[in-house]
Design brief:
Helix content: 25-40%
Pfam family, one: LRR_6
CATH superfamily: Ribonuclease Inhibitor
Number of domains: 1
InterPro entries: Leu-rich_rpt, LRR-containing_regulator, LRR_dom_sf
Structural class: alpha/beta
Largest sheet: 10 strands, parallel
Shape: globular
Radius of gyration: 21 Å
Strand order of the largest sheet: 1-2-3-4-5-6-7-8-9-10
Number of strands: 12
Order of helices and strands: HEHEHEHEHEHEHEHEHEHEHEEHH
Protein name: Leucine-rich repeat-containing protein 34 isoform X3
CATH architecture: Alpha-Beta Horseshoe
Mean pLDDT: 95
Low-confidence stretches: none
Strand content: 5-15%
CATH topology: Leucine-rich repeat, LRR (right-handed beta-alpha superhelix)
Keywords: Repeat
CATH class: Alpha Beta
Number of helices: 13
Length: 363
């Protein structure tokens, strides 16, 4: 039987109970029907309850007005560290209020505004504010609504990375980023010494962008996780990365190149880089074009113990003497939108990004 979902009026009752309970420091009400009514009571709760450390409101039909209420409540809140607003369509207006909040709030460490329909103006506002904010360690700005081809938000976020020395994780999925954009970020990463997790998945980056990334990885010793999933770096881009990982970089721990139109030559080059690079522990390659050489190469890495089964998204099997690779449910953020309650081990291997670079609880 499907369970009844919490409405805004229901949350009013819940908030009254929580105000009187000093022992609860976290609240997860994702995938309910709170709307702006519930956001009003959530904002009041943030003003009254001074023990709440994390709050997950993802996909609750909260709009710009509700976003404004929550953002303004955080002006005076000094306890909340982790807030997830994922999937609430607060739009550009709500995003601007959250950006303004970050100029005042000095306790929030992790903010997720992915799939919130942010506009160009609010993304640029976040980039501007984060040049000064010294407390935010992780921010998710996935899938803003952007128009035009000039990549202004990426340019501003690149400038921010040159100035910010606290940000550890930056998620820029679905930013319509092309090679010019990744070059802006790479130029900043020559100077940045705090960012450990860069997510630029689901963009339009090709092999030319990998020239810049491979070059910066020769000198950057901070980046530990890079998500390039669902771009188009192809064999040439994979080989650029492989050469750097084999000969220069000894800090990157995880690389995802899922669905990048890479064929056997590029995939084998990546596998070869792991033989000389003892630090790279997690590689995700599913959705590319496997040939027999690829299957044999990754089978050998797994069988020799160089690549642990939990640290990749493929598993070898043999049919009629030929090696093939099957997909397994491991990755950097497989459970970003949902999480099973039946297996903690499964959760860790499916969300390796937050395990390798923890920025508070993975809400």
């Amino acid at each position: 039987m499907p369970a009844e979902r919490i409405t805004g009026e229901d949350f009013w009752i819940l908030s009254r109970i929580l105000k009187k309970n000093p022992h609860i420091n976290g609240l997860d009400v994702r995938y309910n029907l709170m709307s702006d009514v519930g956001a009003y009571y959530a904002a009041r709760l943030l003003q009254k309850q001074h023990k709440l450390i994390y709050l997950n409101l993802m996909f609750n039909d909260i709009g710009p007005e509700g976003g404004e209420l929550i953002a303004k409540a955080l002006h005076k809140n000094t306890t909340l560290k982790y807030l997830r607003m994922t999937g609430n369509k607060i739009e550009n207006k709500g995003g601007m209020f959250f950006a303004a909040m970050l100029q005042i709030n000095s306790s929030l460490e992790k903010l997720d505004l992915g799939d919130c329909d942010l506009g160009m103006q609010s993304v640029i506002a976040f980039a501007t504010v984060l040049t000064q904010n010294q407390t935010i360690k992780g921010i998710n700005l996935n899938r803003p609504i952007l128009y035009g081809e000039q990549e202004e938000p990426t340019v501003h976020l690149g400038h921010m990375l040159k100035e910010n020395h606290c940000l550890v994780a930056l998620h820029m999925c679905k930013h319509n980023m092309k090679n010019c954009g990744i070059k802006q970020l790479c130029d900043a990463l020559y100077l940045n010494r705090s960012l450990r997790y860069l997510d630029v998945s689901c963009n339009k980056i090709t092999r030319d962008g990998m020239v810049c990334l491979a070059d910066v990885l020769k000198s950057n010793t901070t980046l530990e996780v890079i998500d390039l999933s669902f771009n188009r770096i192809e064999d040439v881009g994979a080989k650029y990365l492989s050469e750097t990982l084999a000969s220069h970089n000894r800090s990157l721990k995880a690389l995802s190149v899922v669905n990048n139109n890479i064929k056997g030559e590029g995939l084998v080059a990546l596998s070869q880089s792991m033989k000389t690079n003892p630090i790279l522990s997690n590689v995700y390659i599913w959705g590319n074009k496997f040939d027999e050489a690829t299957c044999v190469a990754y089978s050998d890495l797994i069988q020799t113990g160089r690549l642990k089964p939990d640290n990749t998204d493929v598993e070898p099997f043999v049919v009629d003497g030929h090696v093939y690779l099957a997909e397994v449910s491991n990755g950097l953020k497989k459970h970003y939108y949902w999480r099973p309650t039946y297996a903690e081990v499964c959760s860790q291997s499916s969300n390796a990004g937050s395990i390798l670079v923890p920025v508070g609880p993975d809400l």
